[in-house]
Amino acid sequence: MPISAYLKVSIAVAVATILLKGVAWWVSGSVSLLSDALESLVNLAGAIFALLMVSVAAQPPDEDHPYGHHKAEYFSSGFEGVLIFAAAVAIIWEALHRLFDPQPVEQIGLGITLAVVSSAMNGALAWSMLRKAREARSMALEADARHLFTDVWTSVGVVVGLLAVKFTGLLWLDPVIALLVAGNILREGWSLARRSADGLMDRALEPEAREQIEQVLAGFAHQTIRFDHVVTRRAGQRRYVDLHMHMPPGWTLGRAAAVRTSVEQALMSAVPGLRATIQLLPMDVEAHFNDPRDPL
Ligand SMILES: [Zn+2]
Question: Domain limits at 164?
Answer without folding.
Answer: 3-200
